[in-house]
Every structure is written in C-alpha cells, then in structure tokens.
Amino acid sequence: MFERLRYRPDERATSFSEIKGGLNKMTLRRFKAIMASTELECLYFATNRSDHPAVRLFRLPERIPPLRELFASNVYSVWRRPA
Fold it and tell me: d(Cα 73, Cα 59) in Å, to the nearest integer?
C-alpha cells in the first residue's frame, strides 16, 4: 500500500478492500466476461497459482466446476492483440 501511495497520493487506502474500484472484489465470471468482450486473444490462463498454504488448499475444490467461482483466489493470464 505504501508503494501504491506514490502513484495515487490522493487515495490513502490501508488495505486492498479500501481501494476505489473494488480491487480484489471481481468474480472470476465477471473477469472472463470482460475479457471475452475484448478483441484480445488469451495465450495463458490459470487460477490459484501461488505457494501460499491457503491458496494451495483452494486448488482441489476449484477443480469442481460449480465450486471454481468460490475458490479462485487469483488469476494469472497473458493476453495479446490478434495479428
């Protein structure tokens, strides 16, 4: 948060939940819908790619499609403009 303050001095957030726009409050479904509405091409997409113990626990229930939305704690993806 300290580093972010250098770029957004007007926003004195002390946690991610206080950031304008709701950082870390987007659902996986919403992210996919937003990206599908663009012309970008997905080169890589993965969820729960962290060695943090809590995230590792989420990997198992995330494999069950109805639970994926609830247990996806992070998204790593690479997108590009089509040639």
Answer: 9
Distances (CA, A) of 22 to 18, 40, 50, 70: 7, 23, 22, 17
- Classify residue 2: in a domain, yes or no: no
**Segments forming the whole domain that contains residue 74:** 25-83
pTM: 0.63
Q: In this predicted model, what pLDDT tens digit does every residue of 15-65 receive, in sequence order? A: 767 777 655 668 889 899 999 999 999 999 998 888 888 888 888 888 888
**Whole-number Cα distances in Å, 9 to 13, 18, 38, 52, 79:** 10, 14, 31, 30, 30
